[in-house]
Write a structure and sequence with these properties.
- It is a single chain.
- With 392 residues, this protein is an alpha+beta fold.
- It is built from twelve helices and nine strands.
- The strands form two sheets. The chain has a six-stranded mixed sheet. Strands 1-2-3 form a three-stranded antiparallel sheet, with helices on one face.
- It is elongated, with a radius of gyration of 32 Å.
């Protein structure tokens, strides 16, 4: 319905301000509907009414701020955040160089972010929008997943703050959900040996390498028989021409999970036990990888492998768990509590610790004590003391 035309004496006054001819004062209507007297000074009443309308009725008030906002803002801060996501993603990918799996997750999340924030000005995003985003896409997800999605928003918003598109990071004010303590049971040495003794040769090799190195499936699956020199992103052996004091060479492991930390580069001396494992793994399959097998059928190769004979980390985990259940080991436990291949890492740390060898540096933990570091190709490698766990 069309609004009633204003009287002549009020026609040039700001919205909601009118002149009371009886009392000779200016009255103003608040957004609550309540009326307030602004006195008899015309200039003062107009100034107050304009300032109030700018703040409380911005949708109906033309101002410099409103015109700047309609233009997208000075830095683009008033444009929908969805319009900034692509170039922010380019910066994040260039700066952080995520792994293939992480990048795939980022790209999927970016699609949702662009969709959700398609009409929300960047400078207007608040904590309530973060909550609404999680509710829209991840309301039934685990605490772990929700926390990861919040962290992704925090990452994007941090770049927006850096580019003066936001004053602060609303995702940083979001309280992370509490993560339940790990329910998975530890793997005992006896159970390790039972699975190992029944395992196929390639799986037995993988288990032995995990035990001796304390490293997880990804690193174990990437260990090469021989490399010319240690470098980023490569796990493999550099051999001495002649053994020295029972050491045959060095196994270099670059742990991907903490790849940007100094402690992620670990140099492990190859003693008798590691050499035996590597020697025993050699067969008539031509493979550069210590853990290898010929696939039973032609299947799409995992992104985590670079050679047809290399065992994918996921397959390694599945094979271990399947054999564990086939043997009936820990079948009395719920599936989510049964130890996985990853638990070999904790078992190895426990056994090394019992020998008086600090396992933290070997495990690529950044809080390791008394580690020695040397530089090769401008990369710092943490040398760990020689240590072995006997399985024979």
């Amino acid at each position: 319905m069309a609004s009633r035309p204003r009287r002549r004496e009020n026609r040039h006054l700001p919205d909601c301000l009118y002149f009371d001819r009886t009392l000779r004062i200016y009255r103003f209507t608040l957004v609550t509907g309540k009326r307030k007297s602004l006195g008899s000074d015309r200039a003062m009443a107009i100034a107050i009414a304009r300032e109030y309308n700018n703040r409380m009725r911005p949708e109906s008030t033309v101002s410099i701020d409103s015109l700047i906002r309609e233009s997208g803002g000075i830095q683009g801060e008033a444009l929908p955040f969805g319009e900034h996501v692509d170039h922010i993603m380019e910066r994040a990918i260039k700066d952080e160089q995520p792994s293939e799996n992480t990048l795939a997750d980022w790209l999927n999340d970016a699609i949702r972010v662009k969709e959700f924030f398609a009409d929300i000005p960047t400078c207007d995003i608040e904590l309530e929008h973060v909550n609404a985003y999680i509710k829209e896409y991840h309301v039934n997800s685990s605490a772990n997943v929700q926390n990861r999605k919040i962290s992704f928003l925090k990452k994007l918003f941090s770049y927006a703050v850096d580019e003066s598109l936001m004053l602060d990071n609303p995702a940083a004010r979001k309280k992370m959900r509490r993560i339940d303590e790990k329910r998975r049971q530890r793997l005992s040495f006896d159970n390790f040996m039972s699975i190992r003794n029944a395992a196929a040769p390639w799986l037995k090799t993988a288990m032995d390498l995990a035990l001796q190195t304390t490293h997880a499936r990804l690193e174990v699956s990437r260990i090469r028989y021989s490399i010319k020199e240690p470098k980023n992103g490569v796990c493999g052996c550099v051999w001495l021409e002649q053994p020295e004091n029972g050491i045959y060479g060095t196994l270099y492991i670059h742990r991907q999970k903490v790849q940007k930390k100094e402690a992620s580069h670990v140099a492990i001396p190859i003693g008798e036990e590691l050499k035996r494992i590597i020697d025993d793994s050699q067969d008539n399959v031509a493979s550069p990888y210590v853990v290898h097998r010929i696939p039973e059928r032609n299947v799409k190769r995992s992104k985590e492998v670079s050679h047809p004979t290399q065992v994918a980390p996921d397959y390694l985990s599945r094979a271990f768990s399947a054999l564990r259940d086939e043997l009936g080991i820990t079948n009395h436990l719920p599936l989510e509590e049964r130890p996985t291949f990853h638990e070999i890492r904790a078992l190895a740390a426990h056994l090394f610790n019992n020998q008086g060898i600090d396992p933290q540096a070997r495990m690529a933990h950044s809080d390791a004590k008394s580690t020695k570091i040397y530089t090769s190709n401008h990369i710092d490698w943490v040398i760990v003391p020689h240590g072995e766990i006997k399985t024979g």
